[in-house]
Amino acid sequence: MTKAGDWQSYQRVLLPPVRNLHHLDAYRAQGGYDILRTIFNDWKPEDVTQCVKKSGLRGRGGAGFPTGLKWSFMPPANPAVPRFLCCNADESEPGTFKDRQLMEFNPHLIFEGILIACFAMSMKACYLYVRGEFSSWITLLERELACAYDANLVGTGMLGTNVNMDIILHKGAGAYICGEETSLMESLEGKRAYPRIKPPFPAQQGIWGYPTTINNVETLACVPLILDRGADWFAGVGAQTHPGPILYGISGHVNRPGVYEYPTGMLITDLLEIAGSMRGGKKLKALVPGGASVPVLRADMIEGVTMDVESLRAAGSMMGTAGMLFLDEDTDMVAFLRRVARFYHHESCGQCTPCREGTGWMENLITRIDDGEGNLRDLDLLLDLCDQMEGRTVCALADAAAWPVRNTIKRFRNDFEKRCRPAVWAGVA
Amino acid sequence: MFTACARLDAPEYDMYGASDMPQEALPVEAVLAEPEGHLNQPVTVTGTVHEVCQMAGCWLMLRALDTEAGLRVHVARSEDGSYAFTVPTDISGRLATAYGVLQVADPDAEEHYQADAYGQRSGFQVAPSFSMVATSIRIAPDASL
Asked: Poorest-confidence range of A229-243, A340-354, A359-373, B66-80?
């Protein structure tokens, strides 16, 4: 038995197999918004936060911070001071596409989660910041949000109570950096999306300078399930230290790529089997387990590793967004890393010199190696570059750019050395 | 009048991290005297701040009275290493209360922490045996003001 328990009989709850669930009527027919009414009538805000804390829910956006604890960072409510929730739907990490599925197939679960979180933190407004390229999903969200307003589920006097809350849909403009919480806030305020220096943290000074909490789409979608089924139910699903249902976005050289909902703590090998194994019967060469920014694992490193924070940390990687990229034996790791480096160079906002310059030099050096023009010393230069970037910038983009470079070179050094020109020693032809 | 009321209502303590800290706190001396009973468990500890990380405010050292022993209190971090909150770097000498999980300190990281506290060290000779990952830290007002 793995940490995921009896996953073969797992029943999907985030993306249940219900026809037209994205329509309000179908969602309500499944008991949608019932728990919201119960909470408004019978719960205290602090009890909701305690329940989420007890459930052990960790953020699903990549950082994996305990959600209930994050909510408790908000200062005590003061009616004179507005406070905001922000739902981060700026899903742009390469290899990550699970929030998009929730927006398409279960948008009201997101709205309900937002409203419960707003109640728990005594907020009256939530900004739903959606990636600009998700135009068709934005249209769908706008339509369903309008339905929720019409049904008095959002807005003034919600569900016949005296509770008032608004959800404001905000479209991004295609910058990856806006997924970083402080640059997202800058973008919302109409400014250039430069990450802010912390402190002050968003819970102290967030959107428009007011206390703000930012949560990922999938994180908030878990909230109604926790409140409806109980914290103990959630804590009992999957890995003990990182519990709950989770959406695995599986891509790469597998037969059936897609989004799969299972408990946390699934064996990577089981997930590979679920995705139809490697395409063309080829062997697995590498795995990126949580989106492009997390350290890559060699095939020999994944045996017995489960998809949870502890197990992946012990294996030398991170859970990230659970966007799993499987690469087969034919993969050119230099070309793979070149593509990753190009992405981070393109998406660096340019505010901090180590990131602005470092990502560019990273791409240049890897390109040189990929083109067969690199020297062996370029590998050490790249690792030195990683040292100069990590932890030296306002936000984590530089770290996210450096981790895959450092670990891909470290774990596939032979692949890189083969592409470099042999060392030429002084005096030797 | 209105200003006066506002001042009276102002919180006496500065709160960092979660606002719901348990009220009962143990002195750092008591925790360090019998650490086994608290190891890997949440505990609220109070003591005087001896050192603070001058680089980021990501840790502080609570020192036990009349001894060289201390407890290094780290702020909670995300999986990607980012800090959930930080504390001001000028709180040495003030009374602090921290709530978090007690654990065995990492002796290999001691040199790094000593460097981070550079300029503020005052003869703290003994590397702490225990540390804490705090989810909330409460700092008492500066008595000298």
From this structure: B66-80
Substitution target from B5, B78, B79 for chain A, most A beta carbons within 10 A: B79
**ipTM above 0.85?**
no
Same-domain status, A169 and A264 = no
d(CA A85, CA A212): 6
Give the minimum alpha-carbon distance from B29 to chain A in angstroms, rounded to a whole number: 28
Hey, which residues does A242 pair with through a beta bridge? A239
Low-confidence stretches of chain B (pLDDT < 50) are 1-10, 122
Beta partners for A287?
A: A297, A326
Selected residues 69-98 of chain B with any CB under 8 Å from a CB in chain A: 76, 78-86
pTM of the model: 0.91
Residue A94's CB is within 10 A of a number of other CB atoms, namely: 18
CATH of residue B80: 2.40.50.140
Residue B112 lies in a domain: yes
Please indicate whether, in this complex, the C-beta atoms of A199 and B86 are within 8 angstroms of each other: yes
Identify whether residues A186 and A278 lie together within a single domain: no
Domains contained in chain B, number: 1
Tens digit of each residue's pLDDT (9 = 90 or more) over B113-145: 777 776 555 455 567 889 999 999 999 987 655
Say how far apart CA A51 and CA A226 lie, in whole Å.
8
Same domain, A231 and A247: no
| Nearest residue on chain B to A46, alpha-carbon basis | B20
Number of domains in chain A: 3
A424 within domain boundaries? no
Query: Collapsing DSSP states into helix, strand and coil, what is residue B65?
Result: coil
Interface test with B, best of A198, A215, A321 (most B CBs within 10 A): A198
